[in-house]
């Protein structure tokens, strides 16, 4: 097809689908503001829906802030259970998915909540693979936040912070083999109150492996008799940690057949993989 | 004025497309502007196109489209008008020769603007008489291969103006091409103001962004940052982008045990939101034709530590005022400049504010006005020439046309000779 100045095509944008675009601003407490370029309607709302499940939704009223611009606020105090929440704009009988605009997440980059807080709420607006706006949410009470991970020849050391719990006698980390409830390896946790550190040698995890890849999930018990806390990395602006936080793959033993490395799961929880190079 | 831009592919992602969209959008406020894309490979442009600017295409490469051109026999034959020295030549064909030629012949614009060497050659050879012909160069003359330089030197004599993105490159064209009667002007790329509030200078993050190509020297940046981490372990480096050197950079991070401090972030869209998360930006390239990311960071109030590589950085950064320029390929120098800013909060914030203020000169309106003034001058000159005498025009044009024909003939002869040899 040839176009010329005499038979101009319509301007790009004329036939653009009427998908609203939302800009997001996150605050350091876990709140998110959504600014949507859409016409006002009396019943306009920003609806967050989880995993397509009916009934699992949070409605936030959209109120005008300037002509053609509506705002919805997700306060840190509104409970948003853990998961992936897709954003929709509802109003005047229509329900549209939302395209991500510019996301100002600078307040999340080096977020350090008060360690005495009961619960840590994290909401990170992100663009889904198909290009719509969604929010990842975590609410952990208590929470064990993984920080730097250090390595020597045969082990890894995780430094982190505890929220909503303090270290006490019997503090330990458990590596639990996924798919085998009986295989658990324990190591002591050191530190003071909210700062923790543990060293996990790889050899005991690799012992007795039948050649298959193993995933060992890390759980922290702050003190004897308290429930185990999943070790995770949540407190920054990165919705999906796995591709960004990469760690050295180290050999285990001298036979050259086994390697180990930590990684973050799709839920940003910390796991150690024992596998083959 | 009626201004028509000719782009390689307006539906893809790239710096030339973005800067053309920005320019077209701004010029459209006062002029009649359109964009023609040689190729179209998808339904919607990947980047937001300018509103109210008609966007057309010449060759449809969408395999599901009724107007699909990809299987036409002419599209399998190598292009003759589009120069072989332009790296995009394999994508061009006898079909593009015809389609672009017909488009230019039918175009009733006052000004036609090409956006890469091959398209500038098309305009030089095929635009209607009386249309002002402008060739934009987004790369650099020194970066073009010998074969392309040799051809451009003849072809560009038939343009009314060549615009480069730096003064340094404009000088190269003036000194090495010496094109009589052709205006050669540097026009910096447009960088719109940031939509977010500028950085506050507090974030302990250094940000870099670009293609992971060898010439970007992110290996140098990572080595330099190792020195920063040694003294200030609370600082992090985030590198945005993707590309061929990613595995090597990953291996270097592992080797230097920087996995807690240096992060390969992947591609961010829009990138704009990432700059204010940091308080320093870094560019360690061996070559920057312009240095778009430098200006983008500055527009977010982030001072840039950059190598003083050709051509763009020294025309953007005022060393010690709104950023730092350091010698090329010197990791220690990069580290020292980063440490100066890491260790002095006041200096970092002052430079950030200066970067924010000084980068306002890349505003769409200011840059578009310079393009518009050049076009208006050329349109006026053309009219004067036509009413007064066609002699001056002919003096410029005739040798060019003769050379043009001689050049084409020579290539035909060579091509026949080659065919004869293989037969």
UniProtKB/TrEMBL annotation, chain A:
Domain of life from the UniProt record: Bacteria
Protein name: Transferase
UniProt region (Disordered), positions on chain: 1-23
Automatic annotation (TrEMBL), chain B:
Keywords recorded for this protein, A-Z: Glycosyltransferase, Transferase
Domain Glycosyltransferase subfamily 4-like N-terminal, residue spans: 13-194
Source organism, top-level taxon: Bacteria
Molecular function GO terms recorded: glycosyltransferase activity
Region described as Disordered: 63-89
Matches recorded under InterPro entries: Glyco_trans_1, Glyco_trans_4-like_N
Pfam families assigned to the protein according to its UniProt record, in alphabetical order: Glyco_transf_4 (PF13439), Glycos_transf_1 (PF00534)
Keyword ATP-binding carried by entry: no
Ranges for domain Glycosyl transferase family: 200-356
Name of protein: D-inositol 3-phosphate glycosyltransferase
Organism: Streptomyces candidus
Lineage of the species this protein comes from: Bacteria, Bacillati, Actinomycetota, Actinomycetes, Kitasatosporales
């Amino acid at each position: 097809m040839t176009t010329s100045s005499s038979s101009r095509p319509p301007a790009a944008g004329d036939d653009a689908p009427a998908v609203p675009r939302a800009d997001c601003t996150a605050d350091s407490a876990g709140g998110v503001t959504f600014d949507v370029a859409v016409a006002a309607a009396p019943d306009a709302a920003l609806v967050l829906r989880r995993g397509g499940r009916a009934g699992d939704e949070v409605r936030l009223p959209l109120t005008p802030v300037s002509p053609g611009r509506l705002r919805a606020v997700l306060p840190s105090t509104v409970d948003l259970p853990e998961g992936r929440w897709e954003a929709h704009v509802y109003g005047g009988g229509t329900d549209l998915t939302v395209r991500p605009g510019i996301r100002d997440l600078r307040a999340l980059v080096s977020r350090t909540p008060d360690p005495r807080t009961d619960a840590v709420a994290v909401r990170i607006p992100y663009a889904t693979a198909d290009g719509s706006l969604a929010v990842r949410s975590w609410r952990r009470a208590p929470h064990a936040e993984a920080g730097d991970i250090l390595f020597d020849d045969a082990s890894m050391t995780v430094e982190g912070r505890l929220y909503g719990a303090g270290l006490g006698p019997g503090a330990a980390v458990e590596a639990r083999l996924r798919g085998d409830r009986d295989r658990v390896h324990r190591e002591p946790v050191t530190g003071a109150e909210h700062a923790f550190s543990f060293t996990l040698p790889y050899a005991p995890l690799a012992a007795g492996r039948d050649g298959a890849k193993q995933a060992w999930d890390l759980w922290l018990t702050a003190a004897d008799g308290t429930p185990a806390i999943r070790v995770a990395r949540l407190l920054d602006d990165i919705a999906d940690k796995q591709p960004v936080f990469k760690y050295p793959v180290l050999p285990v033993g001298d036979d050259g057949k086994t390697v180990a490395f930590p990684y973050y799961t799709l839920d940003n929880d910390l796991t150690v993989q024992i596998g083959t190079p | 004025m009626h201004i028509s831009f000719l782009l390689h592919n307006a539906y893809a992602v790239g710096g030339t497309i973005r800067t053309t969209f920005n320019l077209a959008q701004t010029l459209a406020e006062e002029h009649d502007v359109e964009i023609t894309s040689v190729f179209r490979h998808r339904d919607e442009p990947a980047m937001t196109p300018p509103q109210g600017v008609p966007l057309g295409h010449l060759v449809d490469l969408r395999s599901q489209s009724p107007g699909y051109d990809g299987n036409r026999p002419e599209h399998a034959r190598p292009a003759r008008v589009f120069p072989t020295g332009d790296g995009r030549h394999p994508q061009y064909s006898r079909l593009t020769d015809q389609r672009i030629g017909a488009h230019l012949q039918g175009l009733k614009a006052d000004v036609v603007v090409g956006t890469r060497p091959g398209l500038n050659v098309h305009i030089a050879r095929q635009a209607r008489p009386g249309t002002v012909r402008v060739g934009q160069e987004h790369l650099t003359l020194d970066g073009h291969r010998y074969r392309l330089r040799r051809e451009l030197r003849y072809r560009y004599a038939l343009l009314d103006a060549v615009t480069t993105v730096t003064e340094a490159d404009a000088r190269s064209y003036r000194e090495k091409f010496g094109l009589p009667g052709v205006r050669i002007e540097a026009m910096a790329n447009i960088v719109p103001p940031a939509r977010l509030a500028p950085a506050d200078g507090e974030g302990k993050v250094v940000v870099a962004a670009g293609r992971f190509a060898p010439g970007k020297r992110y290996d140098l940046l990572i080595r330099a940052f190792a020195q920063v981490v040694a003294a200030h372990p609370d600082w992090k480096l985030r590198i945005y982008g993707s590309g061929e050197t990613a595995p090597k950079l990953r291996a270097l991070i592992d080797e230097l045990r920087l996995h807690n401090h240096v992060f390969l972030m992947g591609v961010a869209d829009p990138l704009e939101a990432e700059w204010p998360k940091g308080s320093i930006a870094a560019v360690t390239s061996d070559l920057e034709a312009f240095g778009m990311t430098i200006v983008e960071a500055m527009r977010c109030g982030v001072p840039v530590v950059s190598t003083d590589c050709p051509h763009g950085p020294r025309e953007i950064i005022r060393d010690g005022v709104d950023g730092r320029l350091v010698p090329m390929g010197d990791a220690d120098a990069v580290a020292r400049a980063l440490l100066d800013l890491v260790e002095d909060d006041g200096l970092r914030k002052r430079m950030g504010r200066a970067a924010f203020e000084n980068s306002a000169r890349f505003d769409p309106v200011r840059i578009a006005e310079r393009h518009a003034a050049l076009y208006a001058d050329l349109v006026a000159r053309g009219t004067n020439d036509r009413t007064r005498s066609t002699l001056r025009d002919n003096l410029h044009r005739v040798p060019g046309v003769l050379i043009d024909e001689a050049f084409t003939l020579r290539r035909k002869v060579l091509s026949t000779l080659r065919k004869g040899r293989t037969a």
